[in-house]
């Protein structure tokens, strides 16, 4: 993102608002406009109140960027868009909450309709940046904050989208969490990343997987065999069952994801049953893997008897 912009100074804060045609009453007074002059421009439609002490200049319509900018300006210098609202602006969640969320590094009891102000004990310069000129929490802190709001599946989707869109890659995010020790959201985010990037060696994977398969009532599988033009991890030719295991999923390239889709599709079109498990599931959730394998074995045995 280049040189980190100064987001704390009043000058930078005011300049950001001007980029979106949004100004504060304080700015107008500082420019020499008196109370009557401001009221006159409101009456003539040159200024449009969009919140207490905040005006849209020229035209009243509020785009999302204008709404976010107005919310930040209403909270004063040093404020920044945060939590789910920041996630929407970063493009890593699709829907923000019921209110625009803004963080300030001070005690703030500001209450406005449609605005949720979050007072924080600290808000470091390194935690802030600008996007579309709007002061906003950086990607790492935004992810930490959203981890307190999103379900596990939605948080996983947000981390995936942040990685895919080059907002912040999972390795950088994992490293950044050390700087937020003790902040709510760090623990579930770290647990999620560690679970989805966990990888066993090929030998340990095989050592751990074979007893799970045996516990599901399956015979000894073949491993590392070519089936339908692809090398598979585990294969039961008598059942037409193929099991693939995924590790380090966040680091898969688009071409690797396409190859996985083609692989699974080839097995299905050949009348086989492909299953996928993560390395984490094999290592830490063997009962879940065993139940899925047992259900697949029952289904395939029933199919063979037809």
Q: What do these coordinates show?
A:
The model is unreliable at about 1-5 (pLDDT under 50). The strands form 4 sheets. Strands 9-10-11-12 form a 4-stranded mixed beta sheet. The chain has a 3-stranded antiparallel beta sheet with strand order 1-3-2. The protein has a 3-stranded mixed beta sheet with strand order 4-5-6. It has helices spanning about 10-20, 25-30, 35-45, 65-75, 85-90, 140-145, 150-165, 170-175, 185-195, 200-215, 255-270, 280-285, 285-305; strands spanning about 20-25, 45-50, 55, 80, 100-105, 115-120, 130, 135, 220-225, 230-235, 240-245, 275-280. With about 300 residues, the chain is of the alpha+beta class. The longest helix has 20 residues, at about 285-305. Helix 10 (about 200-215) packs across helix 13 (about 285-305). A hairpin with a 2-residue loop joins strand 7 and strand 8. It is built from 13 helices and 12 strands. The protein has a domain at about 200-305: VSR Endonuclease (Endonuclease, Chain A, 3-Layer(aba) Sandwich).
């Amino acid at each position: 993102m280049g040189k980190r912009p100064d987001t704390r100074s009043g000058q930078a804060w005011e300049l950001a608002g001007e980029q979106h045609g949004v100004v504060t009453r304080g700015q107008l007074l500082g420019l020499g406009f008196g109370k009557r002059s401001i009221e006159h421009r409101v009456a003539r439609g040159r200024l449009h109140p969009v919140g207490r002490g905040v005006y849209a200049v020229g035209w009243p319509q509020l785009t999302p960027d204008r709404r976010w900018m107005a919310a930040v300006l209403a909270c004063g210098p040093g404020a920044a868009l945060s939590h789910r609202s920041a996630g929407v602006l970063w493009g890593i969640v699709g829907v923000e909450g019921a209110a625009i969320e803004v963080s300030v590094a001070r005690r703030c009891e500001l209450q406005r309709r449609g605005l949720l102000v979050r007072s924080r004990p600290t808000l470091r310069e390194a935690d802030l940046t600008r996007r579309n000129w709007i002061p906003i929490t950086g990607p790492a802190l935004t992810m930490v904050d959203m981890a307190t709001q999103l379900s596990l599946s939605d948080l996983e989707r947000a981390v995936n989208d942040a990685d895919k869109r080059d907002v912040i890659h999972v390795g950088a995010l994992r490293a950044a969490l050390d700087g937020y020790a003790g902040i709510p959201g760090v623990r579930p985010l770290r647990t999620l990343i560690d679970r989805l990037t966990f990888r066993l060696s090929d030998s340990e994977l095989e050592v751990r997987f074979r007893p799970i398969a045996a516990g599901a009532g399956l015979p000894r599988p073949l491993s590392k065999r070519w089936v339908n033009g692809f090398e598979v991890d585990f294969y039961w030719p008598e059942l037409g069952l193929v099991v693939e295991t995924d590790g380090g999923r966040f680091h898969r390239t688009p071409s690797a994801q396409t190859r996985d889709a083609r692989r699974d599709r080839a097995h299905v079109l050949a009348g086989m049953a492909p299953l996928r498990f993560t390395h984490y599931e094999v290592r830490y959730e063997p009962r879940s893997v065993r139940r899925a394998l047992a259900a697949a074995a029952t289904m395939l045995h029933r199919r063979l008897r037809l």
